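--- STAGE predict ---
source: upstream dedup step, 1 unique chain passed
mode: sequence only
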Amino acid sequence: MSDTGYDFGMVGLGVMGRNLLLNIADSGYSVIGLDKDPEKVSSLTAESEKEHVKATTSAEEFISSLKSPRKIMMLVPAGAPVDSVIAELTPLLSEGDLLMDGGNSYFPDTDRRYAALTEKGIHYMGVGISGGEEGARRGPSIMPGGSADSYDMIKPILEAAAAKVNGEPCVTFIGHKSAGNYVKMVHNGIEYALMQLISESYHLLKKGVGLTDGELQKLYSEWNEGELNSFLMEITADIFAKKDDDGEALILNNILDRARSKGTGKWTSQNAMDLQVAAPTIDMAVVVRDISAIKEERVAAGKVFPVEEYKMDADKQTVIKHVENMLKFAYITAYAQGFAMIKKASAEYGYEVNMAEVAKIWRGGCIIRATMLEDFRQAFTENESLDNIMINSGLAEKLSSYQTDIREAIKLGMDAKIPMPATMASLSYFDLYRSSWLPLNLIQAQRDFFGAHTYERIGKEGVFHTIWK
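--- STAGE serialize ---
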């Protein structure tokens, strides 16, 4: 192909950018990449000998090689690097061109950039992409937000690159302005929650029940064949099968118990509190990562408060069933919290998100893909104004049937002194949500007592204040 007329451009040829660009090229589109690093440019050229794939270190050459209107995606680290690329490319762009941010940008930053570039006549989209490097190469879940007109410009390319479930591409127009980055942020918050829930089940089965690594591998593989089928369950089973370099010990058993994070879980928790939407399972997943970081303090505290040897007085198979259903219950509540956030944010920020479509595109390609997402899609299809998926009749029936199991599993964890904060938060969320009465009348009385903050009364309109003393 000649040096002009490429269909799509990618800024940032790291693992994600390179893989997504090659994915789009495989779909028959001509593509060009831009990166300051000559090694990444030559690496892309070497990896693909196709004449419709090109890379350069020159922004001018990159821009001049694209068809008009230009369609460009940035896959660079969130924050200042995105603003830097925008500042460099904007003077070279023409009115009507499309610039997309495919990274995990904080959604208020996307709103700021969207407003600034729209004013210049340049289309701007925040595009959430999930699936890791393998997903980028073979088909991710894609969450584009901005304007419907912008999406129409790029829709054929994104649909070609996205994962497919039953022939349906895992991409849809999410909503206005920063909706795409917002939904990806919540996706990552749910991801935090699911990972923490699985790790708590592992802790209970390993330390409480005493399952061997081989038994754990077999069990998680079996669970992945049923209702718990999900990407995270699948890779958990694989992790229990991966030996270290010595060929004897599992790599897992040689990994330090200190988890890192990139901030998207924290953003989800912070925004949930801003919106006054309860997301306790996500909150606790963030908290556990924070506590994991203080490894030295935990080791010292363990010497002050040693845990006695625990012998489980229960049938192993019964406990395993409790834990399986505990996870099913907690999975549903974790997704419920995320969907409740998206619903509230859609109304608050004017996104106009179609909830059934979000569940639909999460069924494939992304990290939180799971079989039960089809149940959630059906729930929102039946009732698009559904406040919370837990009250859908089918899901409510499942939660009711699993709640005894999660309670029994938590009791066993408490007896074994095994921390299960995300699991407990999932149950508490359910119990709070279904409570027609909560003891918050006392809190209202306390607030009025010490601060004259007033309160509402049952059966009477208005606000009231009492002289308590």
